[in-house]
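<context>
A single protein, sequence plus fold
<entry> Chain with its tokenised backbone below
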Amino acid sequence: MIGLVITVIVVMDVALLGIWLVRVYGEIHRFRGEVNCSWVQLREAIVCRREIMPYLIASITLKEREVVEAIGNACDLASPSAGVPEQARAESRLNTALRNLLIVMSEHAEVHDDPSVRRICLELQALDQRIDILRDLYNQQVSAYNDRLNGMSARILSLFVPLKTADAFSAVNGGIRDILARLIHSNPPSERSP
């Protein structure tokens, strides 16, 4: 009789442990899903910004071909990136190339006067702000997910199921926002005083 009671207690404990582990796994899986969803949104915004670059390059009438080629190469380098760290490095290279191009553009008055350049710069500025918001949201969710993995429940679960931490997105902006603001807010020819 005692053996039967002990067997029932052990079976119930194992069942309760299994239910608890499934619940913990479900919570961690939900956190990981939120991280993945945030990454998809951030990556879409990054791709949208990258797709504007050829239009910006085409709208420029400057002779500074080295900078234009540099940004083209940076766009090509940023395209095939797969993981978050690789994407962050590619975006840092692209941001540096874009900053260099914007500096050259800001030094030429004919660029300030071009409405198509101004329109593209406004789109870039809006996308840059959207990327900042989505990056912050993604990094907050990564932090919450990684904190969850450091908890005791996840540590016990990791004995049965391998769990992998998420990578934060840390691309260097390079001061693009300030240069875009100068280009956008410079006086167009119709607003200049005679």
Remarks:
- Residues 47 and 79 are 8 Å apart (CA to CA).
